[in-house]
Every structure is written in C-alpha cells, then in structure tokens.
Amino acid sequence: MILYQTENFGRRFDYRSNPHRNYVVPAHIHQYCEFAFTKTGVTTLVVDGETYQLPPRHLILILPHQIHEYCAATESTMRCGVFSQDFVPAFFEALGQRRFVRPILDLSQEPQLLDALDRVAPTDTVRLCGLLNLLCDKLLTQCQTVAHRADRPSLYYDAITYISEHFQQDI
C-alpha cells in the first residue's frame, strides 16, 4: 500500500521540519518537496525503487509525487523537512522536464547550511526561501540530471499525477 499524505497538499508557503531517530515511514507520496539529511549514523531510504544510504552531512531531495519510504536499516539521527513548491519556483523552471540521477548533496564542507535548516522557524518565509533556493541551486549545479521526454511522459508519472490531483487518500 502507498500512503497519500494529505497534510502535504495544497497550502502556500507551507514548511515543516522535524528531527528523527531511526526514522521509519512506509511508502508514501505527496504534493510537496521533501529533504532529508543525516546527522549521525546512516539514513536508509528508498525513492522510486532506488535505495539510498545517506551518511552524515549528506542531503537528499525528493521531488513531488515520488514514491518514497524510510527504513531503519542502521542507527541514525536525521532531519526530514517538507515544503510547498512556491518556495522554489525558479528551481522548478530551471529543472523543467529533467530529473536527478542521484539527488544527493555532500554538505560536509558546508555545515552552516544544514545548521541553518536545523534552526530556521517555519514561519520565517523569507529566510526559508533563501535557504531552500540555495539547496536547490546546489542540486542543479552539482547533481547530474537526465531529460524526460516532454512529448511522451511515462505511464507511471501520468498515473501518479492523476491520482494526486483527484484523490487525497491512501492508495
């Protein structure tokens, strides 16, 4: 079963972020972007069937409507945040029909960015716009992307988009 997270749907400048220990969440989708970064240990997650291991100070970005889950394969502490797309409209325009091959950033040399995400208030919209746009810019410049054919999207994407636009319940 895939859970549809209705709390991550339809609001403007919506941001939530929480720390977790040995985080486990079953497969789910939602309309928002999601980031996760590891503080200690290794965070294991699966995004669209691909398993990722995030060591400390590494961050992953999950795009809207990507099926993902968190598995407590190893001991870890991490932060997970979700945010509406209106924080980063230029990012989505720049990304276009492309998708990341491996949407992971090594931020071990830039701990101030992760520390700022750890401390920012969810109501500080201007600061959040800045931080999230910095992250998205780093993803665009440091992570490989591949083109998706705009004239022939995948059946999977069509199905997920239709479901997310018409049903806000578990599938």
Topology, element by element:
Layout: E1 3-4, E2 15-21, E3 25-29, E4 33-41, E5 43-47, E6 50-54, E7 58-62, E8 68-71, E9 76-83, H1 89-95, E10 98-100, E11 104-106, H2 111-119, H3 125-142, E12 145-147, H4 155-166
Helix pairs in contact: 1-3
Notes on the structure:
The protein is an alpha+beta fold and 171 residues long. Helices cover 27% and strands 35% of the residues. The strands form three sheets. Strands 1-3-8-5-6 form a five-stranded mixed β-sheet, with no helix packed on it. A hairpin with a 2-residue loop joins β5 (43-47) and β6. The termini are close together.
Mean pLDDT over the residues: 89
> In one word, what is the shape?
globular
What is the count of helical runs? 4
Rg over CA atoms, rounded to whole Å, is: 15 Å
Structural class: alpha+beta
The H-and-E topology, N to C, reads as EEEEEEEEEHEEHHEH
**Low-confidence residue ranges:** none
Question: How far is the N terminus from the C terminus?
Answer: 6 Å
Strands, total number:
12
What share of residues is helical? 25-40%
Main β-sheet, spatial strand arrangement: 1-3-8-5-6
Could you give a short account of the major beta sheet? 5 strands, mixed
